[in-house]
Amino acid sequence: MSHKATRPMIAVSATNPCHLYEMALELRKLGVLSRYYSGYPRWKLKPPPQFPMASSSWRTLAVYGALRFAPRCQKLSPQRMFRWQDDSFDRAVARMLCPADFIHAMPGQCHETFRAAKGLGIRTVLNHATGPVRQQLAAVAEEYRRFGLKQEKFHFFNDAYFSREAREYSLADYHCVASSVVQEQLVAEGVDKNRIWVIPYGADPAFFYPGQKPVQAPFTIAFAGQICLRKGIQYLLEALQSEEAKGWKLEGYGVISREMESVLPKYQPACQTTWHGAIPRFELGKAFRKSSVLVLPSLEEGFGLVVPQALACGIPCIVSDRTGAKDLIRHRDNGSIVPACDAGAILEELHFWSENPKCVKEDMSWRAPGLKMKEISEGVLV
What is the pLDDT of residues 139-168, one digit of tens each? Predict the structure, then answer.
């Protein structure tokens, strides 16, 4: 059978421009993208010319507009609004779905899409940015108890969500994950390992590329991501209370979650600490190039997109053994892998990299992930 006969045509659906948009851009370069279904308007994404995109975006604009401009007293729950956004987008994609060999979509936004795909003979691929939600919650439950917090106050998952998740799993022909961590979690849920594709994420070289020279003193630690218990920031802060951290700097990039309002004051790092809030990608790339090391000590992390982004900027990454992007790390070569919940191990590796500064060289573009998805999809069609 010729290569042309088995070339897959892959459709991708995502409410927000997450990793799936960047994968879709690469699939387009490889000539295998059928269509990208977006919850964002074309003018917002600014895709390249002739990019095959279908948009249903009014719900997204309504949600973010309400969150930004509506008086606080009139706001609905953000969780309920995002649920409405995803449900409505899912139904819209189901109505405009076109023929393809595969459709990739994310949990929580693909039930109707997958039902429509089945009717068109399209193979369905549940594309997981994280692991199964019940396992996520279980992995961090003890942390909430440790700080005297009620976990159910800080998430919006309920029986209706889990019922939908189960139906989406039942409609999925395949599962696509970014790491061995999520692969193992899905197997524990009863998913056949042979139906799980493992394809890591990349980093956009337009934003994430090495600096001209290694960062000099002071030793600067970057943390990027939502500042919450799940990300293990509390163990990084505990490590930085050591006298050894004097003279270092911690730069945090990400939104501080409500649960941390009572947790952050419990820690007094010995180093200078700055919380910057969320910043755009081009600013994050600049921040990484000014840093010495990235630390992502998550208690549960399906992958951690900031890891390939930081590696692409030339800085080593210290990650926990529960972080999916550990698959990219060669211990004390381009980073370190530490046990989760171990502040002492984090401090030890920080000391190592402060004494052994390095500008790592890694090709973290989306080229290899795109080729792997194309190759796996071709194998299914043979």
Answer: 999 999 999 999 988 887 888 889 999 999
What pTM does this model have? 0.93
What pLDDT, on a 0 to 100 scale, did the predictor assign at position 332?
Answer: 98
- Measured CA angle at 19 (ends 278, 154), to 5 deg: 50
End-to-end CA, the chain: 8
**Residue 255: half-sphere exposure toward Cβ, Cα within 13 Å:** 4
Which amino acid is it at 4?
Answer: K
Letter for the amino acid at 327? D
Q: What is the DSSP letter of 237?
A: H
CA atoms of 105 and 108, how far apart (whole Å): 9
| DSSP code for 252 | E
SS3 127: strand
Cβ atoms 291, 308 nearer than 8 A:
no
Tokens representing residue 29 in the block: 């370069």
HSE-CB for 103 with a 13 A CA cutoff: 33
